Amino acid sequence: MRVLIVEDDSFIAEALVAGLRREAMAVDLAMDGTSALEHLACTAYDVVVLDRDLPGVHGDDVCREINERYSGVRVLMLTAATALHDRVDGLRLGADDYLPKPFDFPELTARLRALQRRAGTPPPPVLRTAGIRLDPFRLEAYRGDRFLRLTRKEFAVLHQLMAAYGGVVSVETLLEKAWDEHADPFTNAVRITVSTLRRKLGDPPVLHTATGAGYYLAPAR
Predict the structure, then answer these.
(1) Element (DSSP H or E) covering residue 115
(2) How far apart are CA 136 and CA 24, in angstroms?
């Protein structure tokens, strides 16, 4: 999942970025409304975690812009305003969900994953392809009965490959969905991660390279 955090409190922002990256999400950060709109113009996000009271362009205006120009992007409004009318106003602006501060981090991640499911055809809660079983909520993956000890990046790459159900996933897509805005487009990080993931999946091989196109999963022959 590609997530944009829009939060002007540096302590909260850094905690959110670190926490969501531990959940194998690709996370970018904007500290004000203007920066948020610049990020949205350049990157296809699944969900935006949006603080309402932002410097520069107000969070309400960012929310309106997302609804007018980026219809596939879900918005979780995160704010210290807890009154009922504040929550109602946020939802009327076009937010898909509303979570008041303070909040419990497990609830935030659960809400983000629920919003991602709403963005299109909902995937099954557990993905199964080529003899591999992946549970994105528990961050667990198995090949047969063998538990796969994966890094967060390996898990994120495997998740994207599993979600393609045998289709080819390009290097560009993996960079966009499993890394973040700081990833060098010329990096070999994807190749290295795929190589270690292929080794951990073991034999017979199920992770294949489509030369010049990307990677895909297929049952062992």
Answers:
(1) helix 105-118
(2) 9
